Amino acid sequence: QKEVEQNSGPLSVPEGAIASLNCTYSDRGSQSFFWYRQYSGKSPELIMFIYSNGDKEDGRFTAQLNKASQYVSLLIRDSQPSDSATYLCARGQGGSEKLVFGKGTKLTVNP
Amino acid sequence: DADVTQTPRNRITKTGKRIMLECSQTKGHDRMYWYRQDPGLGLRLIYYSFDVKDINKGEISDGYSVSRQAQAKFSLSLESAIPNQTALYFCATSRTYNEQFFGPGTRLTVL
Asked: Which ranges of chain B would DSSP assign to H, the alpha helix?
């Protein structure tokens, strides 16, 4: 079982809607979680990280973490066509210098 | 100027050839990483280095070697390239284990 699981998509939402991206993980020792955005042909860029249970908001983005259920999600409010990209979920582990990435979910926001 | 640079950006080579991919950074980070990305498989860690004297194997190190020439330089070598090493290769750096910054990538094709 892959340590970090994401639906590959594609996820398609209309402009202005809320896009919901989900990620589950198997290692209960995971302590930190990251969402990267990757445009086609480009490198991943960090958009959010979260360490504690609950919600963390940054502009139109909200990361949600539930360690008991081992899932982390990313909500994008007021989705824009420029949000169309592949979103990578990653988890880190305390004391470890490594991140483990999911395969990514491709999001398309339709005008 | 970009904080993390990779050379070459594109490379086509033949089976059996030795090839080196180079990564340089001006972020002053101690930690550097090499990943490969394949369609449908996501990002996978090849090697990582915490400082000049520290090199560690990642998830998929077979067929690869690395050299950390300085804090700012981390090179990845394919000793004898094979077609299934055709992929997009990313270098990344971090100050801590949390936030990794990625270079622009090298697209490698092995014929």
From this structure: none
Averaged pLDDT for residues A41-54 = 92
Structure letter (DSSP) for residue A18: P
Cβ separation of B42 and A98 shorter than 8 Å? no
Task: Check whether B99 has a pLDDT greater than 90.
Answer: no
Q: What is the largest CA-CA distance in chain A?
A: 44
Sign, CA torsion B102/B63/B21/B25? positive
Listed residue (A8, A11, A43, A13) closest to A23, CA to CA: A8
Per DSSP, the three-state class of A16 is coil
| Close Cβ partners of A3 (under 8 Å, ≥ 6 residues apart) | A25, A26, A27, A91, A100
Please identify which residue in the block is written with the tokens 């300085």: B70
Residue range A60-86: mean pLDDT, rounded: 95
What residues does B66 pair with on adjacent strands? B76
Phi, psi values for residue B83, rounded to 5°: -55, -35
Per-residue confidence (pLDDT) for residue A2, from 0 to 100: 60
**How confident is the model at residue A29, as a pLDDT?**
78
Which ranges in chain A belong to alpha helices (H)? none
Instruction: Find the largest Cα–Cα distance for chain B.
Output: 38
**Average pLDDT, integer, range B42-47:** 92
Would the CB atoms of B98 and A32 count as touching at under 8 Å?
yes
Which of A6, A17, A1, A11 lies closest to A80, judged by CA?
A: A17
Nearest partner of A75 among A99, A58, A52, A92, judged by Cα: A58
- Collect all residues of chain B within an 8 Å Cβ-Cβ radius of residue A43: 90, 102-105
